[in-house]
Amino acid sequence: MQNPLSVAIRTATVAAIFGGLSACATVKPEQLAAIEAKASSAMSEARSAASAAKAAMDAANAAAAAAANAQSSADAALSCCSENKDRIERMFELTMKK
Known about the structure:
Elements: H1 4-24, H2 29-97
C-alpha cells in the first residue's frame, strides 16, 4: 500500500509535465509565419550564393583558359627567338670563317 501523499505528489508531477508539454506544443500562426519567412529568406540567400559561386567558377575557368593560351603563345615566341638566335650565330660563324 502506497502513502496517499506519495500518490498525490506523483500525480501532480505527471500533471505538471503533461501541462508543460502541451503548452510547448502549441505554435501560434504568427510564429509559424515568421519561421516560414526566415526559411524562405535563407533559401533565397542560398540560391543567390550558389549562383554567385557558379559565376565565379565560370570566370575562373575562363581565366585559366586565357592563361594557358598566353603560356602557349609565350612558349612559341621563346622557341622562335631561340631559333633566330641560333641562325644568327651560325651566320656569324660562317662569316668569320671566310
